[in-house]
Design brief:
The chain has 15 helices and 13 strands. By secondary structure, the protein is an alpha+beta fold. The longest helix has 27 residues, at 68-94. It is globular.
Length: 367
């Protein structure tokens, strides 16, 4: 949805994109603004408060904004990966702890239906496991063994709020779907691959692994091969795609687009050279917001207050006082027409972020 803004409701867009990475709570708003015609931020906030989309640890053990339907369908397939990724950080501290017992203890604490911060939940079980400390226990409970969501107002437009966690089942109203009986074909994995390719294909199996954090989904890919088409990229890698997926001509003009931090248009691939130069690859994991020019990362952007301090995307008071400026820092020299297009799109972004109170944009010199 970056070649042309789509006429889609935000719920359908979040579903099509397989979620948006969202550890920075306000970033998904800019991601949808760049993809949807006439996007109104309150519409996404309403989906959060209405429990149709949720903030949860999922792909790559990062916080994603996904539909409630998708977290119910996909979470069980991610369970083992989520546990292993937490253990990858805290294996020594959590050695000897039965993770199923830890999960049961966490559920017992949460049975009263009250949301809790990670620290509160960890302290509630720490009397049984005092050695690890609250951080390892909390990380495993919130991001590993329990399907949990971060409750509004966190993630609501212009709201700043700490993280309060609740079980998916108590917030959405039912338990996550159990994994089907394993026969090697991995039906949930097949749906993940289909959905990923619909949004981001053509792609290699390594790209699917990089996006999901799952180990390549070999059973799913093998089961799907008969319904997929294949290509070879410039490096000779096999790329997979759905037969009816759009594959625009390489000469199709790509308009300037402003992407938020950690956008899956970049992080959703193992081979990120399709969109960002190797020399700039570090920006994608450093949380830099980027500007696409002709379909490739050509600049970073931020929001600056009149006093010169950076503000977060959609950060409340400063933007409403018309003192904020969208600041673009090129990574290469722009032509005159490119600079004009960047300025025009930046002005529209400033209008969006300030609720129409500012259209300030400043394009700097190449770094």
């Amino acid at each position: 949805m970056l070649l042309e803004r789509a006429e889609l409701p935000p719920l359908d867009a979040v579903s099509h994109l397989c979620g948006l990475q969202a550890q920075e709570p306000q970033e998904p708003f800019a991601g949808l603004w760049s993809r949807l015609r006439g996007f109104q931020p309150d519409a996404l906030s309403d989906l959060l408060t209405g429990r149709q989309v949720v903030r949860t640890h999922l792909m790559r053990r990062t916080v994603h904004l996904v539909t409630a339907a998708d977290v119910l369908a996909w979470r069980a397939r991610h369970n083992a990966m989520l546990r292993q990724r937490v253990l990858g950080v805290y294996r020594r501290e959590l050695a000897g702890i039965d993770l199923d017992e830890l999960a049961a203890a966490g559920r017992e604490v949460l049975a009263d239906g009250e949301p809790r911060s990670m620290a509160q939940l960890a302290r509630a079980v720490a009397n049984r496991w005092p050695e690890p400390g609250t951080r390892p226990l909390g990380e495993m409970l919130v991001a590993g063994v329990l399907p949990m969501v971060q409750l509004p107002p966190r993630g609501v437009w212009r709201q700043k709020a700490g993280v309060r966690n609740a079980l998916v089942s108590s917030w959405v109203g039912r338990e996550i779907d159990p994994l089907p009986t394993e026969d090697g074909s991995d039906p949930v994995g097949q749906e993940l691959v289909r959905r990923y390719l619909a949004a981001y294909g053509p792609a290699a199996t390594a790209d699917v692994r990089a996006w999901s954090g799952l180990a390549g989904l070999p059973g799913a890919v093998a089961a799907l091969r008969g319904e997929l088409v294949t290509f070879r990229d410039e490096r000779g890698r096999e790329l997979l795609d759905l037969p009816d997926a759009p594959r625009p001509d390489p000469e199709t003009p790509a308009p300037v687009r402003f992407l938020p931090a950690f956008d899956n248009a970049i992080l959703g691939y193992d081979d990120r050279t399709r969109i960002i130069d190797d020399t700039d690859r570090g920006l994608s994991v450093a949380g830099a917001r980027v500007v696409l020019v002709d379909g490739r990362v050509a600049a970073t952007w931020d929001v600056e207050t009149e006093a010169g301090t950076a503000a977060g995307t959609g950060s409340g008071k400063g933007a409403r006082e018309s003192k904020d400026t969208v600041v673009v820092t090129p990574l290469r020299a722009f032509s005159r027409s490119e600079r004009a297009e960047v300025e025009e799109e930046g002005e529209q972004l400033a209008v969006f972020l300030s609720d129409g109170e500012s259209a300030r944009v400043r394009v700097g010199r190449e770094v």
